[in-house]
Design a protein that fits this description.
homodimer, about 220 residues, alpha+beta, Arc Repressor Mutant, subunit A, Nonspecific Lipid-transfer Protein, Chain A, five-stranded mixed β-sheet, two-stranded antiparallel sheet, DNA-binding
Chain lengths: ~220, ~220
DNA sequence: CGGCATCCTCTTTGATACTG
DNA sequence: CAGTATCAAAGAGGATGCCG
């Protein structure tokens, strides 16, 4: 990207991360940690492979990304964020908070990847009962199932399934994210096609803002 | 900008403000409030006029900017941010904090505009003596002089001059900003060409982080 | 398959000129 | 002052080829 040539911190930041796709590559590396080239491609649907290669080189030159040749168990190169790259997390968080306003009206054509759930979960969910027993929510949407684990005051997200989750949420991404962000009650979400199994009451434990109808 | 087509709040935000120049236009409107077309051009050195026109239309369509035909004292159209546009302030702030790391090594070719001083001032300066008498710092750099007014716990910035400022800072933008952000002591800055008039002690009142040498 | 590099087409940008 | 029109150059997107 051509520099703006302005002695302003915002312009300087955009000189480095203002290119198309750049901040989304940082998002992927923040969410996944060290990633292979193809993992990044999968998390960035729509990116042209030459662009991904070019951006990674720019990010490396800019000191935001570090390549690492992983030894034989992985036998490939992994891309990691440097400290400077990780420092972009507040930027991504602010952008995500601002962009959340566009989530309720999806076009229906968007791609969704399950690991993106970590964003709304850490933004909207809290463990409202830190002394309570651990609970597990399995979310079935996007490209693969994901787990939200609530225990001891912490809410964590990871990909995978659980043998016997306390609650299962299954539906399209806008509906599931609507429930997790508190913008839809479970009743509203069910009307939009959400399927649930197990104890819907666990949502009351994690939901940050209690919606109108949490039944 | 072509949409990323991803059901992710960050991608949605970048669909709207990810275009080149867009966030800098928002910066200008945040810093200046309602602005004329030519004011924006002046605050965005390097932008092509067709691009400014196109971006303003996109921002208006996106609901971030509102045009207003000002009555005869101004007799022109003014561009304002809407609430949604103003909500981008935390994004700009996060970007600015991240980008501040690039300020100490300026290329020497960058353009600087005095009203951009408001960013580092609000980020780095605090009134460390809210009960003290008001003090005024006149900053002579960039395209026009600016004033930093410290009184009653508040630090404000505006363009203009004062009849008898307590302190005058004059030099190139990197040196002045270095002092205001606490990255340079006054002694270091003087070595880099900063000229001062008046009581250098007032810097001790406003400086958020006390540098090694504040003499 | 993972990790790119190349080629080609289409869109966006930037510089400048021009108009109400 | 407040833009629109024009056009060459750069960049994005998509397909495909190559190589360990």
């Amino acid at each position: 990207m051509r520099s703006y040539n302005q002695y302003c911190a915002v312009a300087k930041a955009l000189d480095v991360v203002g290119d198309r796709w750049t901040l989304l590559i940082v998002r992927e590396l923040l969410l996944r940690g060290g990633s292979r080239y193809t993992d990044l491609q999968h998390g960035l649907p729509g990116i042209a492979t030459n662009l991904l290669g070019a951006r990674l080189k720019e990010l490396e030159d800019g000191g935001l990304v570090r390549r690492e040749s992983a030894p034989p168990p992985v036998a490939t190169t992994l891309y990691h964020l440097t400290d400077a790259g990780r420092d972009l997390q507040p930027v991504l968080a602010a952008l995500g908070r601002w962009g959340a306003r566009f989530m309720p009206e999806p076009t229906g054509e968007e791609v969704f990847r399950s690991h993106w759930l970590a964003f709304p979960v850490s933004e909207f969910l809290r463990d409202g009962e830190p002394e309570g027993p651990p609970v597990t929510i399995e979310v079935r949407t996007g490209d693969q199932p994901a787990l939200i684990e609530v225990a001891g005051g912490e809410v964590t997200t990871r990909l995978g399934t659980a043998p016997s989750p306390d609650l299962v949420l299954e539906g399209d991404a806008p509906t599931v994210v609507g429930v997790l962000s508190g913008m839809l009650s479970l009743a509203e979400a069910r009307r939009l096609g959400l399927r649930t199994e197990g104890s819907a009451a666990v949502m009351r434990r994690v939901r940050y803002r209690v919606p109108a109808d949490a039944s």
